[in-house]
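Appendix B, Record 12. Input sequence as logged:
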Amino acid sequence: MIQKKIIELANMIHVHNDLSAYAEQNIKGVSINSLSIEKGNLFVPLKGGKRDGHEFVEQAIKQGASASLWQKDVPTPPTDLPILIVDDTLEALQQLAKSYRDELSLKVVGITGSNGKTTTKDMLAEVLSSKYKVQKTSGNFNNHIGLPLTILDLKKETEIAVLEMGMSDFGEIDLLTKIARPDAAIITNIGDAHLQELGSREGIAKAKLEIVNGLKEGGLFVYPGDELLIKERLEGTAQPWNIRTFGKQETNDLYPRTLEANAEGSTFTINQSDLTFTLPILGEYNVMNALAVMLVAKEWGISFSMMNEAFSKIKLSHMRLEKTFGINGSHILNDAYNASPTSMKAVVDLVANLPGYKKKIVVLGDMLELGPNEDQFHKEVGMHINPEKIHYVYTYGELAKSIAEGARSKFTESNVFSFTEKKALIEHLKQQLDHDTIVLVKGSRGMRLEEVVEKIKQ
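Logged structural output:
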């Protein structure tokens, strides 16, 4: 993590006040939370919707922080504490991260996409760890605050940083990629998350492609070659990077020759190797994510056999296709971290094709931030569900009523249940669970469907 003298910070960010009294004092690491300060931290007070971090500056220093930033327009800064007055504390945090990244000799991989960012990050970090010292974005630290904090936590000995880049509007990926300056960039896919802000899939493609704005010249750009929206936007533009594509079609640099899925994951072969690869993660779409990972790993000298061995060790982040046991010997597939129409249809199809279960149930919650056509998107998800392979549909939330409406166009009334209260849903669902049952739970983060999972777990 970053370790500097206070006077050195003044060379990395613009500071307005005299620091001579504290010039030789050391800081180690950065925190924005006064409750989790570690000795030597630089505290960065941010203005939030409810509280202003400047209220906690004195508390942070009492708890061990070596110094704190202070925003210029906030009145009465302490005069007897090691304070660095800056124009804007958030911008200073971002500039500090950029300056620190520029000092490090490591390589950076930036990953964005509508779906699959975190899974791809987890896979790539595991594969690259077979040869390099790797750090990755922890949790959901993938935005304008989390990414700078992740960079400032990088160790000097780290050789590769795998950084997830999230967004909800134009310009956000542009900011993140210019801070991180990746040596390689991946777009996992172009789905339909954040349609409310971006307006269309074309808008989503434009926003995701901002990742190349910070990509180093001669760096590696990996994207799904079957996605015409990316191809079209790249045509006629300068492309000073090495471009590699992955996908199902044989026109891609890397594609699967064979692909077989089962209840434990997938096995597949590729056009560039005679090996059979085993991926212990459910979903054909995760094989696509694995192909993106393989292109970066190959570029940086990792053999296909090393990749195959690393795949067996992969552990995904919490609430992403997380398998667990439910009551009465049932199985639960917890994919409640987030949802969009594309990802929801894909995981429903995944469950529909899983062998070994006599009863398959999907519990689907509202998908948020879909804009003016949200009802239609929900209805289309319901109409997509195959009643010959999925036995019961449960929905939760006002928007998800449209999923139920769409499902009833194919299912009988007695196989579709719509709820707006979790307690009622849980009690009804419990009656369906036995050792031959698998339950998928999926919805947007704001629906907190992990609470359903907790109540039906063994």
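The radius of gyration is 24 Å.
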